[in-house]
From TrEMBL, chains A, B:
Residues 13-73 form the HTH tetR-type domain. The keyword Nucleus does not apply. This is TetR family transcriptional regulator. Keywords: DNA-binding. It holds the Pfam family TetR_C_3. InterPro entries: Homeodomain-like_sf, HTH-type_TetR-like_transc_reg, HTH_TetR, Tet_transcr_reg_TetR-rel_C_sf, Tscrpt_reg_YcdC_C. The keyword DNA-binding applies.
Amino acid sequence: MDNHDLPEATARERNEQRIFEAAESVFARHGYRGASIQAIAAAAGIPKSNVLYYVGSKRRLYITLLERTMWRWNAMLSDISVDDDPAEVLEAFIRSKMRLSQTHPRSSRLFANEILQGAPFLKESLFGEMREWVEARAEVFRHWAERGLMDPVDPVWLIFLIWSATQHYADFETQIVGITHREKLDERDFQSAGDFLCQVIIKGCGVRRRDGAV
Amino acid sequence: MDNHDLPEATARERNEQRIFEAAESVFARHGYRGASIQAIAAAAGIPKSNVLYYVGSKRRLYITLLERTMWRWNAMLSDISVDDDPAEVLEAFIRSKMRLSQTHPRSSRLFANEILQGAPFLKESLFGEMREWVEARAEVFRHWAERGLMDPVDPVWLIFLIWSATQHYADFETQIVGITHREKLDERDFQSAGDFLCQVIIKGCGVRRRDGAV
DNA sequence: ATAAATCCTGACCGATCGGTCAGCTTTGTA
DNA sequence: TACAAAGCTGACCGATCGGTCAGGATTTAT
């Protein structure tokens, strides 16, 4: 029986949850090859055999986590239109990516590791989804530029700029913390960094804000 | 005898060169744990034992490469002064980081992997060097803001923005190539991306350019 | 020519890798 | 209560890991 809509957590659900969290942590830190099932099992507080009993194989576990990350990612900024306000959309874009960095940093680092490896597990179909995502948004940015609502910057480079600048606070958190004497990045840090990025990027693209400010 | 100033390459120099290049490639792709000496040896076309004969241990090899990267990095933008032109300095900063991404992408990815791991090999002294580098430049940016030469943006966030946006073209090259249908990033891509970043960031910080343009 | 230093490598070491499996315990159902 | 299904795990497999070492091959110095 699958009580898939009952709130009670079965043994399987409970353990898979613990395994996923532990695995995300270890994969994010050491990459696919560098992560060991033993280390994941230890982090989850579960015997190695039990981990394999639930997830089948290292490969399957990794791909599951990767797809989960992609899914979360693609859900972002799903309803953008040419008629929206450019400043509002760019701000929403930056803020939501920044929130992902804050709430799911290990997810972000797992993805970064996959790319550094040369994206061997990212099927063409998944890259295809991202391509469509990018092209759709880029098209909107282009329209805005044509209407004079922002400078005619390359919209694809703009998307990469926002990705990189926001992901940096998840992927390179260790470096930021080490350089700025912090113990960790807190709510205020993400807020102020988000403010900074919104200000610089929106102004840098020559977006005219509704309130008349430049 | 050490012919350390003779141009002839000794067997040691030749082999170390090949090993370093191969190792940088493998470490950049798979991280410290994920890289195997066997794989490095194969990439260098040298028996595993011979690799260990030259470099001593995996740890030592990795640290050597990491220090080499840090050295290259710290040499950047070494002579910045409050009296320099903000736009010129920012442009030089972005261009030189962009050139590093173009000419030493594996170096950049090696470093990215080290940070993702939590920087276990980056001694406090090395982080200290980076901290001094950042604080010195941040101080200059602050002065410029006080003199009204640019907006009063957080100078540390600005440095991280430039780091992340430029490194992205090395660390996430696979993703960029996959999404934009390219085979690889070429000279023109780096040029146009560099142009874009200079334009957006300098304008975004409210830097007044000498020629009067905004 | 010959001794010394360096270069080079196959064989091997214990540890750990991902994964399998027999067989145990616990849970759910009739 | 009884039986099936699911949960669980120690022992084990061949492969690979980082590293050592004896000893042969080659180069260098005298």
